[in-house]
Amino acid sequence: MKKYLFFIVASTISLLSSAQQGVQNFDFELWTNVSGVDAPNGWVVSVPGAKESADVQNGSYSLKLETQSVPFLGNMSGFAIIGTLQGTTIVQGEPWSGGKPNILNGYYKYNILSGDTGVIIVNFTRWTGDSTKVIGATTHFIDGSQTNWNCFSLPISWDVTDPNTPDSVTVFLAASANNIQGMNNYGTQAVGSTLQADNLCFDCGCSTTKVNELNKNNIQVFYQNRTLNIVSASNENYQVEIYNITGQKVKYSNTKKQIYLSDLPDGS
After folding, report:
1. How many domains does the chain divide into?
2. What is the pTM of this model?
3. Contact predicate 108/81, CB 8 Å
C-alpha cells in the first residue's frame, strides 16, 4: 500500500478550532463562532481561507475553502482538518472505533486554477506503544473545475500485513496541496482556487436520501422514544439506511416500517 506521512502545514497561518472529541459534523451543518469567526464544529480550519457557505449539496451549510493572499506570508491555502495540531504540525487524528471502512464518500465542487492542485487526504492510524503507524490511507488530488455538486468515492488502501484496526483517523481537505509538506511539486498556491465539500461519510455511497428529503418522495418519518416510524403514501418498495455521525451504517431495513433504535449507544 502507499504510505502517507503526517502532514505539516507549511506556514504560520492562523488556525481556528471549534473541535470536540470524536469524528463528527461530516455534513458541516454545525458551526460555532470562535473569536468572531465561524468555524465548523469538530474541525480545525485556516483563517482566512475557510468559511461556511449556503451553497449546499443538501442541508443548510457546506464548507468552502479558498486560497488567499495573506499579508507577510504570501499565498496560503484554505484548509480544514479533523485531527490534532501542535503548532502547525498535524500530530494525530481523532479517536476512531469504526473498524476498517472501504471508501470515503462525499460531495464536492471546485475551481482549482491553472498550475494549482487541491487535495483530500485520509489517514487511519494506530498507536503501537512507542509511535503512531499509518495502516490505512487515501490521497485524492484535484484540478480543473467542477461547477456542480459531484459525488466522490475514494477507496481506502489498507496495509494487508497489519491485522490491527485503527484507533485514530485524520481527514484533511485543502484548496492548494502545495502548502503541505512533501507536496511542493503539486502546483503553486493560486489565489482564488476554491474547494467546497459537503456530506462526507464512510461507506455510505452516493445515493443516500436524507430524512429531511423524504417528504419530497411522499415518505414521512417520525421519531419518538428512540423509534423511527415510516409512513409511505404508496406501496413502493424502499430501503432505509441509518448512519451515525461518523458515516458508519448502523441500521438497515428494506421491509420494516418501524425501526427501534434503543439498542444503539448514545451519540450514534
Report:
1. 2
2. 0.71
3. no
